[in-house]
Amino acid sequence: MGYAHEYATAIMHRGRIPMEPADFVPDWADRPRKAKYYPGANSFPLPDAPYPADATVTAGLLADDMPSAGRFSLPLLSGMLLDSYGLTGRRLGVQANTDLGALPHYTQANWSRGTASGGGLYPVSIYWVSGPSGPLTPGVHYYSPPRHAMQRLLAGNVSGEVAAALGSYGAATDQFLVLGVKYWQNAFKYNSFSFHAVSMDVGALLQTWRVWARARGLRVAPALWFDEAELARLLGLGEDEEGLFAVVPLLWDGTEAEITSAGAPGAAVRRRDQERSRTVLDFETLRRIHRATAESATDRPGPEALRPSAPAPPATATDPFALPPAEFPDVSVRTALRSRRSSFGRFDATVPVTATQLATTLAACAGTRLGSDAEPAGTPRQARLYAFVNHVDGVTPGAYAYEPDTHTLHLVAPGAPGSFLQRNYFLSNYNLEQAGAVIVPTLRTTAVLDAVGDRGYRLVNATVGAIAQSFYTAAAALGLGAGVALGFDNISYIEELGLADSGEAPLLIMLLGNERPCPADFRSEIV
Ligand SMILES: Cc1cc2nc3c(=O)[nH]c(=O)nc-3n(C[C@H](O)[C@H](O)[C@H](O)COP(=O)(O)O)c2cc1C
């Protein structure tokens, strides 16, 4: 059994047995930047990219018959990056987080993005490795979110190295997005817990891309298993400093004849990013879980590997509750992403959530797939959703399992769940009882690790992150408030939902509801 099992157990129990270093206090004055800084690198501004109104949230989140053979171009890549990780506005609304007082200060400004991120730290680095079929001189570029620009790190065609690192995965292309996580960007605050959060961040970003692209007939299918050590060498990354979590091959708008994936053995990025923090700390647990999940990075699971780790259908004695059909208003993916935000304490249950709103959100979350190299068509879903219903029109309060194939709720624990939810939440920024419903994604983490090895931890958490991003996008399209949180006692949820035998691990809580009318806010859009 690898270290990931131990890490998963420590994460589950951390509400009762704090993880080391338990008395850690972040040095906020010496915090890192929210993006990598490459002084002196040439920047290429990305073009404007319109987004059609008919690329709707329904197409991105609910339709499973969308064509996906479209090809990326520079405007499409630019639009997808802007709508996912680019800065789109400034957060100035009054909410219940402890950082509220800092928000009006420009140096501590919080910028909004289409994708959610644990702690709002946005630690994912996006590299674009492009060969000759792309529009720029072939090379390696870093996407700089504050500039919405590509910064050249290396000139020359190294796309063949990425293709080789992927093994036989993906269609023939010479364009790749590589997703890394510079751990310090998150670990300065969350230390040992960091890996758990950042691996979800990767999934959240991938899911924004998948929804955005699917609504436009494009395909985003990440590889999570690849030669990570070789790509880290190519990108000039120090060992343990940055993990590489995903590679997304992009079908590019050009002729296949142009694809020349000639190898460039030994080529590597020499430019180094400049760290802002004077002191960068090393956390042993983080190093160990990074190494454990990086160790067998090329052992891609076989096509049937994830069959045994799928959850069994719910077995409940009572009659299931049939939900109304899922239905989104006619909202484009870009519009939903631009209005997405966390509610942070603004829930107000005076107006209940409708059964259709809950049903639509559940269907969108349950339909979420990473589409990774470990999940070929026909792989059973690995996640199961539970819903704690506080205030939903026509649905009796209680805890339910959601069954997506029949679109029904199965009662697990009767009674209003408000006091359970609030008792088991660690922070003070939400009153969970005022949410209409709290949706909880679970995965059989241990079974996944047994099936595919330690790297499966990244798959589990990316799946949860992807569900979180579907959740936010769905809520925004429905005009509802939303918030997701890791700060809850996982063990109490296992007990309340009776999950000890099935091994399902409740990994996130996702709050859905109406907000107080007319909250104090200041509109500050920058795109
Ligand atoms: C994996 C993940 C974990 C999160 N955990 C929490 C949490 O424990 N508590 C909380 O209030 N928000 C949590 N959030 C929400 C983020 O704080 C939020 O997305 C970020 O601050 C950006 O703010 P925005 O969503 O309003 O754009 C989480 C988000 C993600 C993606």
Largest sheet: 8 strands, antiparallel
H/E series: HEHHEEEEEHEHHHEHEHHEEEHEHHEHEE
> What is the helix content?
25-40%
- Mean of residue pLDDT values: 96
**Ends distance:** 49 Å
Name every ligand kind in the structure. Answer: flavin mononucleotide
CATH architecture of the largest domain: 3-Layer(aba) Sandwich
Rg to the nearest angstrom?
A: 22 Å
Helices and strands: which structural class?
alpha+beta
Total helical elements: 14
CATH class of the largest domain: Alpha Beta
| Annotation, overall tally of beta strands | 16
Strand content range:
15-25%
The CATH topology assignment of the largest domain is NADH Oxidase
CATH level-4 homologous superfamily of the largest domain = NADH Oxidase
Low-confidence stretches: none
What is the global morphology? globular
Describe this structure in words.
There is one protein chain. By secondary structure, this protein is α+β, with helices and mostly antiparallel strands. It folds into two domains: 28-88 and 111-294, NADH Oxidase (3-Layer(aba) Sandwich); 321-513, NADH Oxidase (3-Layer(aba) Sandwich), CATH 3.40.109.10. The protein is built from 14 helices and 16 strands. Strands 9, 10, 11, 12, 13, 14, 15 and 16 form an eight-stranded antiparallel beta sheet that branches. Strands 1-6-5-4-7-8 form a six-stranded antiparallel beta sheet. A two-stranded antiparallel sheet has the order 2-3. Flavin mononucleotide is lined by residues 112, 116-120, 197, 200-201, 204, 341-342, 427, 429, 465, 468, 483-487.
